[in-house]
Structures are given as C-alpha cells and as structure tokens.
Amino acid sequence: MGFPTQRPRRLRQSEHWRRLVRETRLAAEAFIYPLFLVPGQRVRQPVESMPGVSQLSVDQSVEEAKRVAALGVSAVILFSAPAQKDARASAFLDPNGLVPLAVRAIKAACPELIVWSDVCLCSATDHGHCGHVLASGVIDNDSSVETLAQVALNHARAGVDAVAPSDMMDGRVQAIRQLLDRNGHADTPIVSYAAKYASAFYGPFREAADSAPAFGDRRSYQMDPANVREALREVRLDVEEGADLVMIKPAGPYLDVIRAVREAVEVPVVAYQVSGEYSLIKAAGERGWIDERAAAFETLTGIRRAGADLIITYFAPDMCQWLKS
How many CB atoms lie under 10 A from the CB of residue 293? Predict the structure, then answer.
C-alpha cells in the first residue's frame, strides 16, 4: 500500500466536492441588514466611512427595505439619529418619531420583512452616552433603564417585530420585558445585546448614527475586550431576565466568545459584524489589496462557524446576491 494511506485532499479536488462536503453554510435568511434613519424627505446621504451605506429619511428607508427584501434579506434593524437631542433622549419617546414612523411604513410596504429596532439613548442625547448622565459625570443605571423600557414600549406600539436593547445597562432586559408584558406586548421578542464590548471597531457607525459621546468613553458600561467569563455571566443574566435572543458585538475579534456563548445557552445567538469590520474590508477591497467578496464570505463563514445563528452585517444585500451566483 502506497504512502500516504490517508488523503484528505481527495475531498478537496474540485469545487463540486468542496461544496458537497462543506460543514458550514451561509444562507440569506441568516442575515440582518442595518438601516440608519434621519429626518427629512428624499434623503439618501452616503456615509463616508462606510461605502455603500447611507443615512435615509423614512420614505427612503421604505425604498431600501423593498430593495433588500427583493434580494432575499429577511430582516432589518433600525437605528435613528433625530434632529432634536437633549439630556433625556426625549425624541425616542415620541410615538411619531423616526423609528415608529419607519416601522409602520416598512411593515405596510414589506409585510413579510422582519423589522427589529435598536433600543438605546446615545443618538438622541446631547451628551452621546447610552444612559442618563448625573452631574458627577457618572452614567446612572436605574433611571436609564426606566427610559429604555419606555423607548422599547414606544417601538412595540408601532408594530416592531423585536426590540434590541444595546445600552449594556444592568437589568434593562427584565425592565423591558415587564413593561411590554403589562402593556399587551408579551409576544414582542427581546434581542439583547448581551455581550457588547468597548471596541475600537465602532467608529464608522458613530458617523452613521451620529452617536459619538461628547465626553469620555463607554468603558464604564460596555465590556472589557479581555473578558470572556464576564460575557457568559452577562448572557446568562439576560436570558434569565427574558431575552429571546442574545447578541455578541463585535463579531470578528470575538469568535471565541461566540463559541462560548453558543455552548452556554439554548436561545438563538446573534453576532454583529460591526462597521469597522465592514469598512476595513471595503477599504482594502477598493484599493485592490484583497478580494472584497472573498473576504466577506470568509469572515461571515468564520462568524457562522463559531456558532452564530444570525449575523447583522452591512454585507447582507451583497451576500444575498453572491449566494445566488
């Protein structure tokens, strides 16, 4: 018998063989696409640091929702940057604010499209933080949680399919669940940003959502990138409080966290391939340094392989097209 007797390359000798025995597969229904809402009409303002992504007025968000739904995107998540900002994020309590208006319009135009809403305070506060700021400069957890629950209720009343709190305040999942249940929205799921890290990869998003903090940083509430056990504690707490899905953000630098979370809980796991991850690939692709499509496939496959059931990604429309080709 000739050497070697074991030849794994037999199953890699053609694209047909590789596709047949592939262990991890990407599917269009696994992708959620972010939309960024701004005031006005007929507004489609490109985000300079995120090629291919634009800030959209509500009417344009409907057109974009129609476009991506036709490509095969199953879900979108809404972020908004209202014109009026104050210390209490009052704009997010308006039943006719950007997110409620967009939810109603998108659901009317695309009834089969799943619509999530991001629940945070940062892009509606004049200080840019994710909670209420005390005179001492400390982010006050408990009063912030009360407001976050009211924001979630506002979105639920507009008909959103799921609310996604991204603030990382302690106890906010329980507060949201209880307020939704008391007000007739027991069937509205909560997608918790359960393990959201204080990351260097959020810069382009803050341009898109107009949400950069006016002072300091968010390390007192977002997680230390060095910690995994803490992420598992956060995830378990959110599941106990009523989270229906849990999210890890960012995705690419935290594949080990995704894997650990997937093994620790039974609810669906979402990973967010954030703006910095996307923009790095786009920038390198535009310069010819890498193959953008191949890099998108490889990074998203890695996130899926690590254990993510769903992936929020700005590549969602492109991936739906590429998967068909």
Answer: 16
